[in-house]
Structures are given as C-alpha cells and as structure tokens.
Automatic annotation (TrEMBL):
PANTHER family according to UniProt: HTH-TYPE TRANSCRIPTIONAL REGULATOR, HTH-TYPE TRANSCRIPTIONAL REGULATOR PGRR
Protein name: HTH-type transcriptional regulator PgrR
Family per similarity comment: Belongs to the LysR transcriptional regulatory family.
A GO term, aspect molecular function: DNA-binding transcription factor activity
GO biological process, one term: DNA-templated transcription
Species, as recorded: Achromobacter piechaudii
Pfam families xref list: HTH_1, LysR_substrate
Domain HTH lysR-type positions: 4-61
Keywords, comma-separated and alphabetical: DNA-binding, Transcription, Transcription regulation
Record-linked SUPFAM superfamilies: Periplasmic binding protein-like II (SSF53850), Winged helix' DNA-binding domain (SSF46785)
Amino acid sequence: MARENINDLLAFVAVAREGSFTKAAAQLGVSQSALSHTIRSLETRLGVRLLTRTTRSVSPTEAGDYLLQRVGSSFDEIEAGLAAVSHFRDSPRGTIRITAAEHATNSVIWPKLSKVMANYPDIVVEVNIDYGMGDIVAQRYDIGIRLGDQVAKDMIAVRISDDLKMAIVGTPAYFAKIAPPKAPQDLSGHNCVTLRLPTHGGLMAWELEKDGHSVKVRVGGQWVFNSSSQVLRAALLDYGLAYVPEDMALDHIADGRLVRVLEDWCQPFPGYHLYYPNRRGASPALGVVIDALRHRV
C-alpha cells in the first residue's frame, strides 16, 4: 500500500471518530480544506462514499463504518505496539541471551545476577552453557562470556572476574595407589580425567607454567567429560587427577577430600570478560545486566 493511502486512511479514521472535520483537522495539524480534499480523493479512489456530511455533523456511511471498524482497530494495534516498544527504551525489560561456559555461569553469572534480578521482574535472562567459540551476533546472543584472551578484538569487552588459576587435584585414596606427580612429565603415568572441547573435538591440554617456562601436557585416562563439574566429580570418586578452576576445588582441599599437586606450575591467567557488539541504543535491560556483572576491585 502506498504511503499516501495510509495517510488518507488515518485522516478518514480521525474524521469518522471525531464526527467533525474541524476537530479532526486540529488533531492532525492540517487545514480543514486540505482534510476535505483528502477524504474526497479517498472516496474517489475507492468508488464509494465513506462519510455523510450535514451542516451540523459528519458520520460514516455503512461502507465507512465497515472500513472504520477494520482499519481503525489496526491503527490502534500499531499505536499500542509502538507505545510498548518505547518502554524498552525507557525501562529495563526484555530478554537478554547469554552464552557462557559452565564455570563462568556458576562462579560469576549466577552469584552476581541473582542478587539484582529480583529488582527487575520484567527482565528475562537466558543462559546457554556452551564451551564453543561461536559468533554471538549470528546466533542472536546479546552477551558472550569468555576468558580475556579469547574475546574477539572487534567486540566491546568488560572484565567481570578476577584473574583465575587452575588446580590439579586427586584424592588421598588415589595417591595411596600411585605417587603424586612432581613435574609435568610425571602426568603421563597418571589416570587423568579429561575435558573434551567442542570447538575442535579434541581434549583440553593441561596448560602449566613455572619460571617463564610453559608446557601444554596432553594427558589421558579412563574418563572423558564435556563438563568441569563432572571432571571434578570423577576425581572425588578416586578415578584420577582433575584439572579444574581453583575455586571449584578449594573447599574439597580444605576438608581433606582432595590433595593439590603441582601448585607451583599453576599460574594466574586473565579472568572472565563479557563481550558484545558495538550497538548504538543498547537496551536498558542490557545495561542492567552488564552493570551487575562488571568486575569491581
């Protein structure tokens, strides 16, 4: 439909509802003569009279009433939709989709967002646990969360955690059967619970560093998972060594259920960052989530 036809229909709806060319012209911000010309042109194009005019009033004909009921309600829905959209600009509401690894979800997203989301009942947070490095724009995510050195350079990045450390742990019962490793090369003789990465299908190497010397150890064992929590669970059940984020193991180390080894080879590395594309006019809901996750020293 041509734009001028839409404007003519809007003019017709205004006249029919106001019952007056004078009032409708004032509402639309046009002259009464221009409005009369618009209505006559619309009636001519449609080939039917839409309004009955008298010296005192204007009322829709049967055809005009039929058109008013259908077109008028459609314009009302459009107005209501536009008003609803404006709320997204003025108040935090809507769905924020986040992609993150399991550990980031458990250690950062949930602890931080759970404290503030009760204040924003109109915000829905959808978290997809994913170890892949997908395109958040193509996959329609609002935010991605990855380690600092994994964030694409064309994204806006915001730090959301301290630096992290890994821990290599096993149970006392496991070490009763085999001596703890003293150096990275000793890991080849151990049953190591491993993590499979979805990005290329390979097993995650255990990255170790000491005195400026870095090594990536390819380990193996009886159990392979794609979840860090399951890797830790297997280690707690005496199935071998686990290589997990330090905070996942600290309580178990403190209570004696796990023993830490090669700690001097586990150095800090850049913590989690959220990232998102440079979008003008980002929604208030996105701003709330970013501010809640932002790392504060």
